[in-house]
Specification:
The protein has two domains: 2-171 and 356-365, Rossmann fold (3-Layer(aba) Sandwich); 172-352, Rossmann fold. It has 14 helices and 13 strands. The chain has helices spanning 16-28, 67-79, 111-114, 121-137, 146-156, 184-191, 210-224, 249-253, 266-271, 287-294, 307-311, 323-334, 338-352, 357-365, and strands at residues 2-6, 35-41, 57-62, 86-89, 103-106, 140-143, 163-165, 198-201, 230-233, 255-259, 276-278, 299-302, 316-318. α1 packs across α14, α7 crosses α12 (323-334) and α10 (287-294) packs across α13 (338-352). It is globular, with a radius of gyration of 21 Å. The mean pLDDT is 92.
């Protein structure tokens, strides 16, 4: 079987959606009986450079141009040159102008309908149109949680029988048994990390609800004299200019921004934290808290969207959008006794074991007929 996979999104970012496409592809490449056409933008992503001389993998690299023109004109024009048995779009939807048999497109969430205020107007309408087109012309739609599946059925009116669930997985480097080769002192200098810290990791954007976390943390500092810093890790998104507006100066001094974190540094940063907090108001899956669990770190999460489905009973939850409840749960986590902490870590490790890229690839391969 010849399989074409769009990996052009890896050139722009490497958050949860791109990681999903990359890690599933890497697992699928282990199948020796298939041949592959991998399409990249600008350059071959480092994870795939070892396949550049493979006889069963054809690498195609497209030059960059305007993002909209690239996705809707240049990319489909290139794909039309190749005949494959399946065409996979695991990060973003199939191009609107591409018409091929056996196309499979992943819809991770429908934030463009459920949380429109967290997106630009252009992005909102771009994805609404793209998702509807994908649902109409693709043979199969995959998604990453039962929550997202139900929302897709409800909002896009896509047939339930056409939608298949393929969860995200966790890279082996996040497991507690993985060797820790990173020097923590140099890591702290690299990212300006304090000795002790609470951690939150995400793209800094409205959907991640970091303003709520900062306000709850301020209550913890002012009302309960918390002196443990809060570390906000991740690249800057949009609409974050007012993230610290009106926040007490003492509190501001205890909040550390790392900026983008190199992938190989993530496990050590998770493990160095007291606990991980995930305030997001909407997630199709939500990989960071699961990665934290795999690293042996207790997790506090919002109860929004897919989070209870993915984290199960292994996390502590706060009521989404409730700053007082979040502040109370932060205090509870800060003062947690050792026995409860150990139990949370053990439950988290067991929960994380349920999600591997190997298992996800097996489910995805079943769809390639």
């Amino acid at each position: 079987m010849k399989i074409l996979i769009d990996l052009t999104s890896l050139a722009d970012n490497f958050s949860g959606i791109e990681r999903y496409a990359a890690c599933l592809t890497l697992e699928m490449l282990k199948e020796k009986n298939n041949s592959y056409i991998l399409i990249f933008k600008k350059s071959v992503h480092p994870l795939f450079q070892k396949y550049e001389k493979s006889e069963r993998v054809k690498i195609v690299v497209l030059s960059e141009c305007n993002k909209l023109l690239f996705n809707q004109i240049k990319l489909p024009f290139e794909i039309y040159k190749y005949k494959a048995d399946c065409y996979l779009f695991m990060a973003f939807p199939v191009p609107i102008l591409l018409f091929k048999k056996n196309m499979i497109s992943t819809i991770h969430d429908i934030c463009c309908w459920d949380c429109p205020e967290t997106m630009t107007t252009l992005s909102r309408w771009y994805f609404r149109i793209s998702f509807r087109v994908a649902a109409l012309k693709c043979k199969i739609i995959t998604t990453v949680s039962d929550f997202s599946k139900e929302r897709i059925v409800s909002k896009i009116k896509c047939s339930r029988e056409k939608i298949f669930l393929v969860y995200d997985g966790i890279d082996e480097k996040f497991t507690q048994s993985a060797p820790n080769c990173v020097d923590m002192d140099s890591l702290k200098n690299k990212y300006n990390l304090p000795e002790r810290y609470f951690l939150s990791l995400s793209t800094l954007e409205p959907r991640k609800n970091l303003r709520l976390l900062i306000e709850a943390y301020q209550k913890l500092v002012v009302e309960h004299s918390c002196d443990i810093p809060l570390v906000l890790a991740g690249r800057k998104g949009w609409k974050i200019d007012k993230l610290l507006e009106g926040i007490d100066e003492q509190v501001k001094n205890q909040i550390h921004f790392t900026g983008f974190v190199d992938d190989d540094d993530l496990p050590a940063i998770y493990r160095g934290s007291e606990f991980f907090v995930f305030p997001s108001k909407y997630e199709g899956f939500g990989l960071p808290p699961l990665e934290a669990m795999a690293c042996g770190v207790p997790v506090l999460s919002s109860d929004a969207a897919s989070m209870p489905e993915i984290l199960g009973e292994a996390a502590m939850y706060f009521k989404s959008e409730d700053v007082n409840d979040l502040s109370e749960k932060l205090q509870e986590m800060m003062n947690i006794d050792e026995e409860t902490r150990v139990q949370m870590i053990e439950h988290g490790l067991e929960q994380a074991k349920k999600f591997t890229w190997g298992k996800s690839a097996v489910e995805f391969k079943k769809l390639l007929k």
